[in-house]
Structures are given as C-alpha cells and as structure tokens.
Amino acid sequence: MLNTAVKAARRAASIINRATFDLEKVTVTAKQQNDFVTEVDKAAEQAIIEVLLTAYPTHAILAEESGPSSNLNDESEFVWIIDPLDGTTNFIHGFPQYAVSIALQHKGLVTQAVVYDPVHNDLFTASKGGGAFLNNKRLRVSKTDRLAKALIGTGFVGGDRDPVLLQNFLKMFEVMTMNCHGLRRPGAATLDLAYVAAGRYDGFFEKNLNAWDIAAGALLVTEAGGLVSDFSGETGYLDSGDIIAGNPRVFAQMLHLLQPFA
Fold first, then answer.
1. Are 184 and 92 in contact (CB under 8 A)?
2. How many CB atoms lie within 10 A of CB 186?
3. DSSP per-residue string spanning 131-170
4. DSSP for 75-126, written as a single string
5. Sheet with 151-154, side-by-side order of all strands
C-alpha cells in the first residue's frame, strides 16, 4: 500500500512539475477569499485517485478538491486522505515550497503516509510501527531540549481571514516568538510536519487545518519519535484541525504555552 501511494504521489508530481515550466498558463480559480485551486490541483488529484483505486477499487477516498468519494465505498475500513498540492498559493507564485500528501487511514488510524516535495525530490514515507524515512534514510526528530533553542514552524489562518481567528493566532504568534529561538511560516503544513520528523524543525503548531493537511505529516512525526496532539493534549487533531507537533521535550513546552488557546 505504501508503494502504491508513492507511485500515486510521483504521478501527481510529474503533472505539477510540467506545469511549473509555464505558470502563467495555469488556470486559477478562487474557492473563497485567499483560497485558490488550480487546474493542476485537480489533475494531480485525479491522477492520484486513479492510481489508488486501480490498485484498491474497494477503498474510500477523502480528497481536498473532490471531497468524499461520492458515497463510493463509504463502508470501507480503508480511506485514502489526499492533498494533491499543499501550498497552492506558493505554487502559483513560483515559491518552491509545496508538496503532495497521501495518507491511508484504516479503521480510523492512519497507517501509511507519503509526503513528496517535487521541487527538491524529497520523498518522506512512514508506516505505522515501521518508522519514518526521507529517501530511504531513517528519520529521527531533533534532540533540542529547550524551547528557547528551538526552531518552530507555524501557519497563519487562511480562507476568509476571520478576524477573530486572526487575532487569536497573533496572540499565539507573540507567545511563541517570545519563547522560541525562531518562528517560520513557509505555507505548506504537510512539509512543516515532515520537517519536524526530519529534525529540520523542533516543533510545529497551527489551527483550523483540514485532515488532508496533517494526516500524513502527523504519522511521519510520531514514527520519527515525536509527539502530536491537539491544543488540549488529546488525539483529536484530525477532526479539529488544531495541531501541535514536536520532539518530546519541545512538544511539552509548546503544549504548556498553547493550551490556553485550545
């Protein structure tokens, strides 16, 4: 199943890479204010679904652009959670920070994960109980022990720019900025989580995400020895979209500071 997901991610990446040669010709549509979808997102998603359902025709699909699979195999214990192009805004502007994300959920638990960065040819993979890897090299989270020495990733609220959510985020941003070594916001949550797994970040936090933004990345983090939770320290981040991830020591310090924002 992991090999099939890798095949699907590479198929999508080939579509994305071809489009980068002439971004001005890419058709962009606004789903809502500051939330865009391109023909590339849609084509990449269809390519992924075709590969997955050819191999596993009885599995269900939950994808960013097409949503649930129109009642197709809704009774299945297996659900593929797909983000064909996380970081669409970056992609549109030619900013090289975006990725394909594919996760497999079995009986409610994510068991397989692929995050593929086509710009840098970075293939992050994980299987539950089998570890996390970058281009077949085993990943471990960082050993940073203090938040004051930690590099942390985050994301701003998107979509309709709800002023209440934005104010809440700015308060979190202030708290974390005052307590960590540095804060980064590249704009692709799937890669942010993969970077935590790889030790490039010591931690990551964001609110109001979707399951396809975090399902694969969360498994990468836990299989690399990190911890993941919502802002209450519970495991409901796929449902709430609120997530904190990090190496065990930094995670605990982040959770302490961010729990008031749950």
1. no
2. 17
3. EEEETTEEP-------GGG-EEEE----TT--HHHHHHHH
4. T-SEEEEEEEEETHHHHHHT-S--EEEEEEEETTEEEEEEEEETTTTEEEEE
5. 182-184, 151-154, 203-206, 243-246, 227-229
Token readout for 16 is 């994305």
Using alpha carbons only, give the angle 97, 83, 125 rounded to the nearest 5 degrees: 75
Strands 243-246 and 122-127: unpaired
Contact in structure between 162 and 35 (CB atoms under 8 Å): no
Find, among 90, 6, 80, the residue nearest to 40 by Cα: 90
Sign of the Cα torsion 205, 208, 209, 210 reads positive
User: How far is residue 65's CA from residue 62's CA, in Å, rounded to a whole number?
Assistant: 9
Q: C-alpha dihedral over 209, 211, 213, 215, to 10 degrees?
A: 130
Length of the chain as a residue count: 262
pTM of the complete model: 0.93
> In sequence order, what are the residues at sequence separation of 6 or more whose Cβ sits closer than 8 angstroms to the Cβ of residue 82?
45, 48, 49, 61, 62, 63, 64, 101, 102, 103, 212
List, for residues 20-44, the tens digit of each pLDDT value.
888 888 887 766 555 556 889 999 9
Query: Which letter does DSSP use for residue 188 in this model?
Result: -
pLDDT tens digits, 98-141: 999 999 999 999 999 999 999 999 999 999 999 999 999 999 99
